[in-house]
Amino acid sequence: MSGELGQPQAGPSHAGLDFPNPERNRAGVPGGVIRRAGAHGRRSWIQKVLEQITDSPLQWVTPSEVVPVAVLAVQRYLLEDEPRDTIPKPPLYCYDVTISDGVYQEKCYLDPSLNFLVYKNILKVGIEMKISRVSCLYNEKRLGQGILCIDNVHCGETLEAISLETPFRNSAHEEVPERPLRGGKSHYLALWNNEDPYGDIWLTNKQPEEHNFNNTKIISLSHLEMTWANRRNFPALLVRILHKSKLRYYGKPDKKMIEPYQTFLEVADSSGTVSVIMWNALCPEWYKSLRVGLVLLLQDYSVKKSYPFRMQPLPVDPQIKLISTMEICLNLRDPPTNIIIIPEKQVKPEWRLPKLNHRFITRSELDDMPENHICDVIGILVFVGRVQRSKKKENREDFWSYRWIHIADGTSEQPFIVELFSTSQPEIFENIYPSTQSMTYFVCTQLKVVRNDTQVPKLLYLTTTNESRVFITGHRGQPYTNDTKVKNFIHWIKTRTDSEEVKNTVIGGYYPYPPVPETFSKYSSSVKVESLLTAISEVRKEIEDLQYREQKRIAIQGIITVIKYIPHASATESASASETLRNANRPSTSQAARRENQSQERDNNNKRHQDDDPMSSQCFQTACTSLSPTKKKRILQGPYAKLVPVPQPETSGQTKGNKPDVPSIFQRRESASTSTAGKARKTISDRWESQLWREKKFGLIDHLHYSHVYPESIPRKFIFEQRKFLTEQFNSQPAKYIPPEGRPPNLDDFKSARSLGHFEVTILGLNHEIAIDVAFLPMYCPEDLRTSQIDTLLTCMNYSCVYPQDGPGNDTLAGPRALAGDIIKAASKLDRVHIVGILDICNLGNNKVEVYLHRIYSPTNTS
Quick one: where's region Disordered (predicted)? Predict the structure, then answer.
């Protein structure tokens, strides 16, 4: 077995089917033990299908009995070109699907024609699946072996629980490390991106070891720079790691490399800093064990001329020379590199290795930081957005994974807004949630400032770089703990045992960031796309091409013809919601199943959520007390809702006009009792329909309905006791099934962080042939619209304006309902007006797609 693992071959691997063959000695065949169902046990459907294949003259069969099986794993890998492939193809990712029939588990190959089911997250772990056609792919280099291929399936509902106790029919599928069924690639990739290390090939067991330097010759980096071109053998390097990049996977079908990975380490000694490139199989062996600050002894490395177009990160000490003429290469062979981690206690002062110097800034300092400035931040997480994906290049299968987070540090009302891309630390990226305890703090290094002060609203946020690292546990012993600003933050957080920032935390939901500029001409110059405008006839294809959790922004032209206000369902806003969730494991599994089935039926029919019931047409109290002018503040869209700004005194030298136009940290006002819903109500129209729509709606050739707002898109108030469930809901779908702990709650049971409802907007194409329904979500509470200059539909939508609730007696829906009335009145001014709409299209997986209206450009603000 070990010999075959060392020599992977194209075609079906050893870990496949093992068919009866009278000419072979089964005990000596490298295929693992083939288990047979006992005479007294339940008959395995998988085994019956295999018998059908062996008896069939064809290479495929339709099972005589289609029995539901459970999906336990969906694993991705790169299939290298096989001998018959003469023309190189772009990367082709294949999927192995592990199924269970209750008796055995079997790893199967998914036919590439069904890959779209994985792209859309329809075929996923934890569901019931019916396989209606299977085939066999034989390995012609091995006797009597092949793999089971899934050719046609029907994906069903999510199962409440699946047993993991059933054994594999073929024990080769249980071997460690796991190997793909096909091709010569030795490992699986992460399911949704290529940056994250995935699987059991990634080791974590490298430890520091004492080294005897008596017979070790050391060369400085500056000396090596001057002499490397004339050397054949290089003395050892003694260096400290200053930066560590995320992983880069460069596998291609025509590359015969087992583990095609690359990572960069920026290392330094007293004479300079240089880039070290770790290649291929060394990455799985060493990547997870190396961290910033470690001291390394590098032997048997190679040196080459540096790549001219790579930008090195800035040195931590400006006094250290930046060596950019050469690169150090570490390989498993040619020559085999020797890496030793030196214990910190053995590091001598006379080595003069550089110390780590961090660039921590506070939120109050961020406003003065220039574009592209590199910095580090520390704080508590007050908002953690859902994981999203963006395509690296059009017409390719590679994606970036990222999420938006808010970090508060107590120095400003505003949080840090951070675009957090995967940093090859999935154990952190997939397990971050808002801070609920004073000592839970979050550190992110090597962030880049993104700002644009010329647009309205002003743009200011941080984004990760190639060298960014994230820390959320294990702060003790980290070099940054001695930084003055870190000490100040820790002192501040220790004194705030019951802070508003910790109590009012939010997770998940649709997050419309970054905002677009105030004019279409500025928007045009800020985006990098082949075609600036998308024809409304092409919107359907744009939506259908989206993959799971992919979010894309497009611009269309049209005419707004219908606006309807949908209030948020008050049932999920009850005061007892939090307490109910803390005891969420009490409902019966049948109740949970009924809730899930009902939710799925609503999704499949593309109907309105709970908001769109008979209550949505009822009328609500409209009284809304205006904020005084001193309390007014305009806020952008964001994940918080029903939030009231904390009044702050004006500081000297600062006016309202130069305050950063970014989301703040707020004090939340508790919801009024839901009993007020029964009070007298005043009739307000919640719908506007143009005369043009009445004339054209029955003659359309296509009407796209994407105004539904799914539960996953509503930001939820974070509950620590349900952190595992909430984290799973807003993470990407896992590659392997994880059994739930107890009976999981329903996402609708969690209290929304916003109770503002949403608008359904119908946009008619300029040719009056196609229309699309989209959703618009107001997110923040700025000043009272009735006393401000924001009094048109366009500005209401552009700034997501809603009325703040003021006074304990006001109905929770009074402000938003009053806003709805104002928007309906203003909408009549848009009859037959041509607009440009900026749309965010989001694929949530499992045939759930949403389209949000992010901004409207009218003829007055398109230039």
Answer: 1-33, 573-619, 638-679
H-state helical runs in 707-833: 723-730, 793-799, 814-827
Beta-bridge partner residues of 76: 95, 189
- The answer to whether the beta carbons of residues 356 and 320 sit under 8 Å apart is no
Residue spans per domain, the chain: 45-187, 218-351, 363-507
Q: Given pLDDT bands bounded at 50, 70 and 90, which one contains residue 615?
A: very low
Residues facing 390 on adjacent strands = 400
Contact between 619 and 718 (Cβ < 8 Å): no
Q: How far is CA 470 from CA 473, 526, 535, in A?
A: 10, 29, 41
Q: Under a CB-based contact definition with an 8 Å cutoff, are residues 560 and 763 in contact?
A: yes
Helix or strand holding residue 852 (H, E): strand 848-857
Task: Pick 340 or 519 by higher pLDDT.
Answer: 340
- CATH code of the domain occupying 363-507: 2.40.50.140
pLDDT category of residue 685 using cuts at 50, 70 and 90: low
The DSSP secondary structure of 123-185, one letter per residue, reads: S-TTEEEEEEEEEEEE-TTSTTEEEEEEEEEEEEEEPS---S-SPBSBGGGG-SS---SBSS-
- The pLDDT assigned to 54 comes to 81
Q: Does domain 218-351 have CATH number 3.30.300.30?
A: no
Selecting from 3.40.640.10, 3.40.250.10, 2.40.50.140, 3.40.30.10, what CATH number does the domain 45-187 have? 2.40.50.140
Percent residues over pLDDT 90 in the chain: 51
548: left (phi over 0), alpha (psi -120 to 50) or beta: beta
pTM for the predicted model, two decimal places: 0.82
CA 132/CA 114 separation, integer angstroms? 13
Q: Answer yes or no: are the C-beta atoms of 623 and 672 closer than 8 Å.
A: no
